[in-house]
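INFO worker-7 received task bundle
INFO bundle size: 2
INFO processing item 0
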Amino acid sequence: MFFSLLNSHLYLSALLSFRVFGKRYRQVIRGWEASIRAGGTNDRRINWSGSALSSFYAAIRKALVVVIVARALGLLFGLGFAVWWVFS
């Protein structure tokens, strides 16, 4: 039970961080949509699906790194506080 809550919290935190780091992904998707509407030659020249997938996974990686670092810092501060509380 605890680990499922921990994993769901990790995913929620990553999704919230993705809102911050997903700017490039949203730009790629908007460019792709604009290219389709305009009907230009960019459709053949640019690998839109590869570019979108690459920027999506880059945003997810950044969000997960931020969440993991924040959790590690929280754990260190929590352990430091516990040690201070026990020995004071």
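INFO item 0 finished
INFO processing item 1
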Amino acid sequence: MSWRAADLAADRSWHLEWDHRELSALDAWASVTSGEDPDELVAALAGAPEILVERAEAVRSELINGYGLVLLSGLDVGKYDRKSIAVMFMLFGGPRTLQATCSAT
């Protein structure tokens, strides 16, 4: 889909924001992703809370079926270590990534 700046200004469906429930779940989930063991990280990704999986699916849907871009705001990345942020990023890697990671555990 092609779009113009006026399209994005008129329709803000591409601008998503974390809500307090998602941020609380993300905080709890991030605390188990800080280990060095790669198996631990895979297990954390496979065990992502449903509320975060739902958010990831909404982002992927907007990327695939919407404008092809998403601004997801409201996350203070300064609160997390690099590994936790990397695992959060992998959550948004796509259905194949999530399925492959989940089936690896």
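INFO item 1 finished
INFO post-check item 1: Residues 94-105 have pLDDT under 50 and may be disordered.
INFO post-check item 1: Residues 13-103 form one domain.
INFO worker-7 idle
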